[in-house]
Structure formats: structure tokens, C-alpha cells
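Agenda item 2: IPE complex prediction
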Amino acid sequence: MHDPGIYALIQLMPTVLRPAGWALWAAATVLDDLADQRDAEPAERAARVEAWTQALHCELAAGTSRDPVRHALVDSALRWRLDLSSLRGAMISTRDDTRGRHFADWAAWRAWCNGAITPWVDQVRHLFERAGAPMTLRLDRQQDYQWFIDGARLTDTLTDLSADLAQGDLFLPQEALDAFPGAEDDLRQGSWSQAAAALVRELTALARQWVTRPAMTTGMHPGAATVLNTAASLMRAQLDAVDAAGHALLKRAPRPSLAARTRILAPARIRSKLAWSLTPLTAPGPRRPTVAASEPSPEADDTALRPPPPHRDGVRPPQIAADRMPAHVAVIMDGNGRWAEQRGLPRPEGHRAGTAAAHEMVHGALEIGLRHLTLYAFSTENWKRDTEEITTILEAIRRDLDEGPIRDLDVRQRWLGHPDKLPQELVQALLREERRTSTRTGLTLTVCINYGGRDEITRTAAALAQAAHAGDIDPHLIGQDDFARHLPHPDMPDVDLLWRTGNEQRISNFLPWHTSYAELCFTSDYWPDVDRRDLWQAITEYSRRQRRHGGATR
Ligand code: IPE
Ligand code: IPE
Ligand code: MG
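Presented output:
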């Protein structure tokens, strides 16, 4: 955190973004310092981190702070519309660091890295995005990004070995230490043995490999790419310094020489200056009054619930008799791509435009009193599309979750689909909103992302097989109810009405179990062109249908 390299990296950001970069860095550093203060017991240090975090939460709502670092962070968050709620987990992790850490293996170590560092780096990425120079990672590079972050953490840990050991800490996984018998004891006793040296050599090589991810920045804005590539070069120089330190590593944190740093930074400054001078950046607009700081408790959330905004023409929903209302409407939101093509726009524009229609459906569903609305946003088959289109769809969903335009409505939000291949930050955002809204009682909105009906059925069958194998269920007695209980959301009712826009008449692998007796409604408008009146129209049509479920008409 005290690494002067970070200062140099912030200097590579466009001028307009630097104050926010400094604010984030300062906040992370202060929290780290609070967690490390040697004059206090761990419990006291944990309390200080917690108090700082709580104060930030209140001050974000107030829009100001008397503490200079928090004030800078509050100001940046409001100016750039950053949602700092994802930092809450990182702050809790810093608090818990005060109690010492032990990692059995690399997986445990990596999980810690992920929770403690990734949210901070992600905030910087949001900043770039807000300014109009996104640090977008291609989906097939997400794994590189993860390695890169792990490499940064390992570089930091090796650099700070002396300071950590002085506090009795060794933030390395047991698995790595055990590979060099005796190394751990030697390090803890301050002895630079052959085993200790071999361990450090192995770990610097590993870190070098992890931070060297040239493909990670392919296709990225050149300014943003320069920041990341320079970070990687600085880390390699730092690892060289660790390797060169020898026994001095146990006395103080090694730093690369001025010459080594200059060799990296001088060309990077020229490159980034040129890149930013060619990019029109968006300066922040006026400050927004408040930004959510952390996950409020569900109770606090519910007191702030507001009714849905009315339709722009003031149209009100039709009156549908209670026994004619569908309990569950599922929608295949189709036609975004064709909507864009029809206007000569790139397909991704269609997906961006589709977000407003999805909000409309939520508003319309609340107004008409629907209990369950399920939206098909991204199918397991949609991975066949171009990476750019996929990134836009998933990014639009993530941004929408972060901005939270439906957050204060009486909507319980949840996600149906599988996390495989989805960006980590999207998964986090989905789970966050699910937790935040879990006690709402109005509309249940299920968004299907990376969802496939056959995938769902296969996984459910596997879960049943496991239950049978474990002896929890007799395979001879398995019935439909048992199957339904093993679905990912067992409380999701059957779909009464399945509505598809975009002039196609097919199901496209959507909710096969739940739609087996659904009424079908196909309309021709492309998704970005529909609004809540179309939902009401579909429900009105449904209310006139005769459903027999295999029985005979009376
Ligand atoms: C639906 O719109 C949205 C998703 C599948 C994610 P499309 O992108 O399928 O639009 P068309 O069908 O190509 O017009
Ligand atoms: C179905 O639409 C999936 C979603 C709306 C998310 P597609 O556009 O992918 O379906 P096909 O390819 O026309 O069947
Ligand atoms: Mg389509």
C-alpha cells in the first residue's frame, strides 16, 4: 500500500481522474495503517477499522466528511457516481487481518486476495469506465486479470516480509511453505537459510509469471492499457529487487533503484500522455446527493421503498379479476440486435436500449400487482456470439445492478443461471442485490443470466442422483415434487404466461420445467420498443384464455 509505484501509476491516469485515484489509494492506505498500528491490541485495531468504515457509510449519505481522506473519497464517489458498496467486503477483510491470518493452501490465499484487493482495483476500473475510457477486459481474459491481481498480492507479500514477520505474520499459504522444509521456521527466526532463500526464489518466479499477462490488455484503450502494463513492469522490477536483497529482505522492504524505475516510467509517461491527449474524456457532472455506501440491512432498505414511477403518458394498468391474473409471467426479451440493425447502429446499442424496456416491465408488473416476473437476459447458447457483444450485454447488466434504478422498489431480485464463465464482478453484484432485497414482499423478479433449460434440468437430475446416492431419497419413489424441490429456485411457481417479443415463435431453451403448461404469447415488436402497456396487453389477453390443463370444457 505504501508502494511509491502506486503514486507513479496514478500519475499515468488522465488528470481528471487522478484526484479520485488518490482518494481511493489514501483510503486503502489509511485502513491498512489502522489495521497495522502496533500500539494497539488486535481487538482495538479491528474496532478502529470498523469505526472508520461505519463513518464512511454515514458520510456518503450526508455527502461530506470532516476527515480529509474520507471527504476525498465521498466527494469522488458522488462526483463519479461510484457505488462503494463493493468495498465493504474489502474493508471487513482488512479488519479481520488484524487478527492474523493462516492459509492452508493457495486456494484459501487466493480467496483472501480476491476479497481484499479486487474490489479496490475494480473501483479504479469503474472510474475509467465513467470517464469514457473503459479498462474493459475481454471475457476470455478474466482469468488473466485474476492471475494479475494474485501476482500483485504475492509481490506485496514478498516485499513486506520483514514488516509482517516483525508482527508474527507470514501471509503465505502453508502449502507453499511446506514445499521447502525448514523455511518457515528459519524465516520466523530471522535466519536467511538455504531453504528460506529457495522458497523466496520460487515465489518471486511464480509472482513474475502471474503478473506477466500480455494478452490481458489486448484491445483495451491504450491509456488504460499503459497503466496496467506499467503496473506489471513495476512489479517485475520490485521482484528483481526482492531477489537481489538476499538476507536484507528480512530487515527492510527492498525497492527497485531509481534507474530501474525511470527506465519503466519515462516511456510510460510519454505513452499515456499521448493516449489521453487523443481521447475525449467525460468530466464528472454535478455531484449526486447520495450514494449507497454498503449493504444496508433489509429493514433499513424497506423503509426507503417507493412506488414505481408512472408511465410517461400517465396510462394506468387495466383491472384484471384476481382469479384471471397470472401468478408468473416469463419474458423472452428478443429483438435487441435487429432493433439496432434497423437503425444502422451496432448490435450492442440494441442491448443498451433494451435495459430501459426491462425497467418498464418491472414498473408495469408492480402496478398491475404481478407476483412473479422472470426475464431471460442471457442464455447458455448466447456464448456463441461475438466477444464484444457478450461483453456489452453482461456489462449493461452489471452497470444496471450497480446503479440500482429499481433498488428502492418493492422488488425481491434474484438470479437464475450458472456462474461458469460469467465475470466475477457480475456474479458478486447479482448476489449482492439478491441479499439486499431478500426480504421484500412485492414482486419477485428473477433474471436469467447464463441460463439454459437443459442445463437446469441436467443439474437438477444430478442433484437428485446425489441425494439418492447419499441415501436421502429412495430412487424408486422419486416423483415430480422431488424433482421440483431440487430445482435452483424451488419456490418459483409454474409459468402461467410466456411472452416473447421480436417476432420469433420458439422457446429457445427457456424454463422447460416451468412452462410445460404455460399460455404462449408472441408479439412482433423488438424488445427496446416495448413498454409496460405491452406487458399489460399480454396479461389482458391471457386473462381471456381458457385453460384446461388436460380437462374438458364445461
Ligand atoms: C435478445 O436480443 C437479447 C439477447 C439474446 C441477449 P437479440 O440480441 O437476440 O436480438 P436479435 O434476435 O438478434 O434481434
Ligand atoms: C433467447 O433469445 C435468449 C434471450 C432472450 C436471452 P435468442 O435470440 O438468443 O434466441 P434464438 O437464437 O433466436 O433462439
Ligand atoms: Mg434473438
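Discussion summary: Residues 222-245 form the longest helix (24 residues).
Owner for follow-up: CH.
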